[in-house]
Fold this sequence. Notes:
Blueprint: E1 2-8, E2 10-11, E3 17-18, H1 21-36, E4 40-46, H2 52-59, E5 63-67, H3 73-82, E6 87-92, H4 96-99, H5 105-111, E7 115-118, H6 121-127, E8 136-137, E9 159-163, H7 174-187, E10 191-197, H8 204-217, E11 222-226, H9 232-240, E12 244-247, H10 256-263, E13 268-270, H11 288-301, H12 303-328
Parallel strand pairs: 1-4, 1-5, 5-6, 6-7, 7-8, 9-10, 9-12, 10-11, 12-13
Antiparallel strand pairs: 2-3
Helix pairs in contact: 7-8, 7-11
Amino acid sequence: MRILFIIKQQLGYNGALVPSKGLFNSALFVVNALRRIGLTAELVEVVDANDIDREVTRFRPTHCIIEALWVTPAKLALLRRLHPTVTFVVRIHSNVPFLATEGMAIDWLSHYDATVGCNSLRAVDALKRVTLRPPSYLPNIYEPGVPAHFKTIDRAGQNIFIGCLGAIRPLKNQLQQALASIAYANEIQRRLYYHINTRVEQGGEQVLRNIRAVFATRPEHRLVEHGWVGTHKQVREIVASFDMSLQVSFTETFNLVTADAVWSGVPIVVSPEIEWAPGHTKIRSNTIPEIVEVMHHQARQGQHAVKRNLEALERHNNLAINAWKEFLTRKGNS
């Protein structure tokens, strides 16, 4: 069994091709996990769909996992004719609310005469109504190495460092989380350092403008802006410096940033969209008082909370590996 994962390079702000960092790391962790259980797996990046034939010919896979929606149904049909023994899979990383922002998504998914993989069971259930064959559950696996030491908030300090990393998008809800973080910092009488990324997608420019305006009106607190960091190791180092990580998003599947925080021993506050996260970390409704309430709860729980978070992530990893095993050994999924 040989599994080839293929990712398309993205265009950067200057028009040059750049690696697809979050997607790359997500796929790489699955590759690492499959290798650990004795399978032959490889991850490659290509310029466009015309490179897929070359990589499949070179690697001779039994399964070719195309990460995200970028190959047209016509191109995929051609690849299947050229390589009839290969199981081609188009694996998506979004639930329906986010897919709704990609205009070709449902049209392409409804015309793929191949397996569609989803990293969310909710997406599997939703998309079975439009795909030609039932989608398969192919979840994320988080496998970056040994977990870091647990971290708790320094109650004697004067500052509080809160992260809300990830590309700025309207559905990520970063402005609401900025306001909640300010409210929390005021209640515990600390100066807030609120960390964000400055990469904007799908109308995120307006969100970023509003976040900057919030901190312009509150000079006692600080907004810390990070560019799109180069390596996952660098991202982990930034996340590990936080006292708390927020991901109270309107739509998610796995959420790599939250996994980074959990693996680094950083307390988290998330929305119910991140299904693998334990219940004590989740808000019930998207209100500032409730986000602040859960932030207080995580701070009070200390190491007990972050240990439970890590146990939840490891439990997800075990279930995810079993899901991949079941898919790869299933007959007739080509």
